Amino acid sequence: MQSKSFLLILVLTLHAQFVHAQWNRPLYNQLTKNLRSASQGQQKIRAMLAMGDYHVEQSYMVAFPQSLDTALSLAKQCEDLAKSTGSAQDLSDTYILYSKAYNYASRYPESINFARKAVDLSASVKNDTGVFNASRTLFRAFVYVYNTDSTRIITAENMSLAKKIGTKRVLGAAYEDLADNTKYRNLKNEISHLLDSAIMYYTATGKKDIQHLLTSQAWIYNQSGEHEKAFTTISKALNLAEELGDQTYYMIYLYDGYADISNKTERWETAEHYYQKALAVAAKYADRMVESDIALKLQRLMVKTGKIKESEDVIALIEKNYSQCNPTLLLQSLAAVLSHHISTGSYSRAEKTYQQLLPQMHQLNGRIERMARKDVYAALTQYHIYHKNVTLGQHYLDLYLETGEIMLYDKPLAHYMQFSIDSLNGNYIGAIRNYQLAGRYEDSIFNLHKNRQLTELEVQYDVDKRKKDNALLKQETELQSARAAKANYQKNLSLSGIILLSMIVGLIVRQYRLNQKRRKEIASKNRELEKLLTDKENLLQEKEGLLEEKDWLLKEIHHRVKNNLQVVMSLLNTQSYFLNDETAKEAIRNSQHRIHSMSLIHKKLYQSENISSVNMAVYFEELLDYYKIAFDTVNRIRFVLQAEPVELDPSQAVPVGLILNEAVNNALKHAFPDQRTGQITVSFKTAGQSRLFLSIRDNGIGMPGEISLSGFSSLGMKLIRGFSGELNGELKIHSAKGTEVSITFDNNNMAESMEEHYPGTQTITA
Amino acid sequence: MNGSVLIVDDMFIGAFDLQLILENNGIEVLGIAHHATEAFAMIASRRPDLVCLDIFLRGSETGLQIAERLRDQNIPFIFISANTYDHIDEDVKRLCPAGYISKPFRDQDVLPVINAALVSVQKSS
């Protein structure tokens, strides 16, 4: 039985390597997309072929029973297209698809036919790789029809071809096929070597899905008694399968193989677990025969580990699959079920099973397969002991013991059965001995079992723990990485935050500094401005002070000038006392009058608010008052003043004053002789814009004859004329009823300095 | 020694004083001009041998400007100024006056300067 299932595995493994693509939705979507986007010609064919391959592989899926039809339909389309384009390669690949599809449909003649056509076509265009691939397909077709000669030749030829092509993948494939073929011939060492080569080449190409090759390898080791090595290898296969998420049909064999090796190496819990897994996959793909085979192995394991009562489901599964089994398998199944029912006391069901088993045995004419014998003889022994048929019981027991496959675990059963027979025979000594032996074996097995279980549990625990640890570690790592990422993120965030903050702070600080700087600048400027303002105010105050001082100084000067002029008058007055000549006294008096008229101007200037101009009305009034006293004419001459309050510049006021002085003097001297009374009228008024009119008129005797201006020979008249000229004035003198001297001149009342106007002061002060 | 002199001064009494001094010493005074326009009108009617010119004059033209015009017409002139140190002024020196009299003046201050100027005028002519 073992070699049979091994063969089955071998053959099926080929498909795993051949198709090596796995059913999955993403792949299907990709293929559909490729097919849709493919334009006409070769691209279209390639896409359809890929889709065909996909469907061929899916044909093993229960959920895709129509896959092979689809694949064949695709192949037909490809064939038409390839023929129209005339591409030998495309046509060859199309034939390969046909071959695969027919192979999977168990239509081997068609499969072989198409594979041959593919080989011939590729050979005709001398495409080595094409020939190689087509030959592999042909090999697979021959495998299923057990044509060992053909498979040997094909694999050998393909190996030569592969060496010629020289790529690692092709070499790997060649070794794989050769190993498969050699497996078929059951040459364990050679197979192992070939598998090693195949695995080596595949590994070198980076091909990862070699789990089923490893499974085959593990089987070889198991068969060679290298159980631990087998376990290591199949563990590797299992890891790979889990890593790749392999859910194909071939997983049955991987799980089954893993369970078998675990069973062999007394990892019973593990074995039971993986048998269950293998059963699940087998159920998925509805392979009832394989299911029964695995179920039987599970059943035996459970009997061995004392789980007879728990194996009810397994027995039910076996019973359900009777019709799907081959004769040997059916025999094994019936034996297992019979044993089970007797052991559990289900005698009616046991009887029924016995009735099914008997015709099968007769049909085989006693030529029961070796693997089935042990189960069948044990079951029959148990059945006959139950029926107290000592002779038949002893007969089958002897046959059972003769199978030569009685292991330690079978010993308790063997001794119990002998005990039962001895008891029935009355051979109590033998019975007791066998009972004791059975008990001892049971104990030892139990102990062994317990120890194994313990160890296994420990190992399992360790593994689980390691797994858990790994998971934990992974989780922790993930957590850490997550934490790290988070931390990193936070760090980055914080960093960016800090940077941003620093930038903002920098900006703020900069702004602040700028503001401060500006504020400082503004403050300093403000201070400067304030200083300037203060300076200005100070300067203005100073200026005002200076102006006041200037005014004061000017007033002081005028005061001094007036005083000095008074001193001059006093000097002249003093001089006159020392003179006896009346003419001389007269001249001095005249000079005194003139000086006084000037002195009055300076008095007016320092007394009034305005130091730059003289109010002529006031000036005239004071001057006339002086004349009244000086000439002692109060009683006979009346002075009439008609003056507008015109302000005159001192430079004009002096000549005007002197003119008035000369004119009044003239009038007093000449107009009123002989103590006559009369009136002198002084008029001063504006005459048109900025013109001034001064007139000194008397109602005296007037001048004799016609008056000519140039005719004046007296100093008085010369002075009048001279000062009038200085004033740029228009002088008129006429005599009708008395004499009138009048002058019209421009008002020069402008701001001009005293020095320029009146250098005479210097003369006086010098 | 005879010669004709024009006095240009805007202050009558100073000019009148000078006029009296000169006339009492036999020097003819053509007149007293109070400003440039009057002065050049008088010169146009009769060219004087010498002009006595006050440096400070009111009006558009100062004594210095009149002096410049006089030099252009080759009329000698003497500066009269109330300022004692005007004669060392660069502008005054540049105009090369025939003499310089500072106010206040007496007969003996005026006459040598005027006479010397008139002599040199008569020599050059």
From TrEMBL, chain A:
<dbReference type="Pfam" id="PF02518">
    <property type="entry name" value="HATPase_c"/>
</dbReference>
<dbReference type="InterPro" id="IPR003594">
    <property type="entry name" value="HATPase_dom"/>
</dbReference>
<dbReference type="Pfam" id="PF07568">
    <property type="entry name" value="HisKA_2"/>
</dbReference>
<keyword id="KW-0732">Signal</keyword>
<feature type="signal peptide">
    <location>
        <begin position="1"/>
        <end position="21"/>
    </location>
</feature>
<dbReference type="InterPro" id="IPR011495">
    <property type="entry name" value="Sig_transdc_His_kin_sub2_dim/P"/>
</dbReference>
<keyword id="KW-0597">Phosphoprotein</keyword>
<keyword id="KW-0067">ATP-binding</keyword>
<dbReference type="InterPro" id="IPR036890">
    <property type="entry name" value="HATPase_C_sf"/>
</dbReference>
<feature type="domain" description="Histidine kinase">
    <location>
        <begin position="556"/>
        <end position="749"/>
    </location>
</feature>
<protein>
    <recommendedName>
        <fullName>histidine kinase</fullName>
        <ecNumber>2.7.13.3</ecNumber>
    </recommendedName>
</protein>
<feature type="coiled-coil region">
    <location>
        <begin position="472"/>
        <end position="556"/>
    </location>
</feature>
<keyword id="KW-0175">Coiled coil</keyword>
<keyword id="KW-0808">Transferase</keyword>
<keyword id="KW-0418">Kinase</keyword>
<dbReference type="InterPro" id="IPR011990">
    <property type="entry name" value="TPR-like_helical_dom_sf"/>
</dbReference>
<keyword id="KW-0547">Nucleotide-binding</keyword>
<dbReference type="InterPro" id="IPR005467">
    <property type="entry name" value="His_kinase_dom"/>
</dbReference>
From TrEMBL, chain B:
<dbReference type="InterPro" id="IPR011006">
    <property type="entry name" value="CheY-like_superfamily"/>
</dbReference>
<dbReference type="Pfam" id="PF00072">
    <property type="entry name" value="Response_reg"/>
</dbReference>
<protein>
    <submittedName>
        <fullName>Response regulator</fullName>
    </submittedName>
</protein>
<dbReference type="InterPro" id="IPR001789">
    <property type="entry name" value="Sig_transdc_resp-reg_receiver"/>
</dbReference>
<dbReference type="InterPro" id="IPR050595">
    <property type="entry name" value="Bact_response_regulator"/>
</dbReference>
<keyword id="KW-0597">Phosphoprotein</keyword>
<feature type="modified residue" description="4-aspartylphosphate">
    <location>
        <position position="54"/>
    </location>
</feature>
<feature type="domain" description="Response regulatory">
    <location>
        <begin position="4"/>
        <end position="118"/>
    </location>
</feature>
